[in-house]
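ugh ok fine here u go
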Amino acid sequence: MQDSHNDREFTIFDILITIAKKKWFIIIFTSIFSIAAVIYALVTPEIWGSRSSFITVSDQVSAKGIGASMLGDLGLGLLGNVSSSEALNNIMYLDSRNLKKQAIRKFDMLNYFKITEKDTLKAMEIALQKFDLKVYGSFFDIETESITVHAQTESQYLSKEIVEYFIESLKEYNLTTKTTKGKLQREFLEKRVAEIDSEFDDLLSQLNTFHKETKLISTETQTKQIFSLYSEIIAKDVANDAMISVLQQTYGENSPNYRELLLQRAELKKTITRLESDNTFYKYFVPIDQIPDNLVTSEVLEMRIKINRAIYEFIYPQYEMAKIEEIKDLPTIEIINSADLEGLRIKPKRAMICLITFFMSLLVSIFIAVVVDFTSPKNKDKINQAVKILFKRK
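structure:
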């Protein structure tokens, strides 16, 4: 009878019988771990969290309005589009060691973590590791392009204050950086505007001196008048030479008209010579042989002045814009969710801890009871049979 009992297979009823026989072991085992879980949940410090989310406000947005009015389409092209580089800069600053060190000192996190290390450098490194692991964190949402700063400590107020400290530090950093950049840009453009003005004054002085020395004030008008006069005198000279030839052949060289024409030719030749190279013809008369060089010099000076003014018209609006950017006080981040006191703690999740511990300890105690009972000598044949079936041995 015993052999037939041992040969029958295990059933769910065997397990239930084993549980019934070992009920006190299961109850005591489960109770011990459940009580330990309750004590742990009650003793473990409460951890409270706080968080704040924001998006980065680019300076380019405000600058575009000014650039559009001052520089037109070219200004907008130079200013470009809003880039995510500013958001990346914000993340880098929020995760910087220096800022975390400042927060650790400000909130006395060495005492919070109960760090007793006497070496200040080593103590700070330990605090930084624990601060990153247990207290502070930030992350960037690619889809919404928002940044979230969160903190969790044993105090609701401390968590809120840490988050607010990081947000305010970021605002101050961005404002200082923006002011510094605006100042440097303004100083550079101010220097460039001064250089352009100085160059303009120098060019005007050169052009004025050139006009005084050459008496070439209006190149186009004076040149036309000079060549008109020159052409007229040349025509008279040619006509005079023709008349002299005619009178010489008709009346001879002793003719009074012939001699009068010779005198006229002499005067015409003098006038032509003075027009071509003499500076004493009229006060604002420019000798013809000097006109090419004078025209080139005058045109070059006037061209340089035009270029100077074109550069000035391009640079000066940017200079005015830089002055505005330097002094304006616009927000660099836009808060979506501000840090607040949260009503629910992050951990410990007391009910969850107790329930999970209860069911896990119950299952473990049942498993132990079943294994102990089934590995007893009376079930040795069944275990051997199960091993043979498992490994397919005869």
